[in-house]
Write a structure and sequence with these properties.
Helix content is 30%, strand content 29%. With 262 residues, it is of the alpha+beta class. The chain is elongated, with a radius of gyration of 23 Å.
């Protein structure tokens, strides 16, 4: 049997989903909700806390509780990698028309704000083991943030690793000023003669760090999905590694696996 605070939350939730309460609308004060529902203030606060954890409302300090604007959803599928590979050898004009974020969100290039930074680093134990290179190998460490221009939080937090010696034959690949790169990493690798033959992705879920929760603007209680993407070339060498943190309140992952006929 539902508890009192759950029933109150359900009433407010129904009103939001029915459009009776719209994004940006202010909820009645807590004292009014106490009177309307004939319940105690702690019960009302439990109901509001539940709705905050679901990302339906947000509490603005000193102003009250407001219906949260739904954030742009991200649908990430395992088919995106073949889509990226199909584009890797297209002309620059074609590659400039769209990218992987647009593919995952349905937005246009002009809708997005992109930021990239590059750093020189060395492989620690984890990265060295993943690439099969000695610890201390020079690496190009890249961080990417892309957001919808109408929103303030990025879709994902991405850190990408490349072995510097593998890509430095093309100096353009060492300069963050060339980002966003049309065609993404697969085209970048293509410019140095590398063809990606398979992509391995491992996904887990965990609570966010305080820094992740702040940057991704996560509702309280929201988990993050942590994805490690490993790209291999045609000789089964690891050529790129990405650690991607995805907000659990706006990310859907869809996997389609063709099965061989008997």
């Amino acid at each position: 049997m539902a508890k009192a605070y759950e029933r109150i939350a359900d009433e407010i939730r129904r009103a939001i989903r029915a459009g009776e309460l719209k994004p940006g609308d202010k909820l009645p004060p807590e004292t009014q909700l106490v009177e309307d529902h004939r319940r105690s203030l702690p019960t009302i606060r439990d109901a509001l806390r539940l709705l905050q954890e679901e990302g339906l409302i947000e509490k603005q300090h000193g102003r009250g509780n407001f219906v949260r604007s739904p954030r742009t959803k991200v649908l990430r599928t395992n088919e995106r990698h073949q889509w990226e590979k199909d584009r890797a050898r297209e002309s620059a004009d074609e590659r400039l028309k769209t990218g992987s974020t647009e593919h995952d969100t349905g937005l246009q290039v002009s809708d997005l704000v992109f930021h990239a930074s590059y750093d020189e680093g060395t492989a620690d134990v984890d990265i060295a083991e993943a690439f099969g290179v000695p610890e201390g190998t020079p690496m190009l460490v890249r961080t990417f943030r892309t957001r919808y221009a109408a929103e303030s939080a990025p879709f994902t937090l991405v850190t990408s690793y490349l072995v510097r010696g593998v890509v430095e034959s093309n100096p353009d690949l060492l300069d963050a000023a060339n980002e966003p790169w049309p065609g993404g990493t697969q085209n970048q690798l293509f410019t140095v003669g590398i063809e990606v033959s398979r992509v391995d992705e491992r996904v887990s879920a965990r609570p966010p760090t305080p820094e992740e929760a702040e940057e991704l603007e996560l509702p309280p209680g929201t988990s993050v999905l942590v994805l490690r993407k490993t790209s291999y070339d045609t000789s089964d060498r690891v050529v790129e590694l990405s650690d991607v943190t995805l907000p659990g309140d706006r990310t859907e992952m869809h996997f389609t696996t063709p099965l061989e006929r008997w």
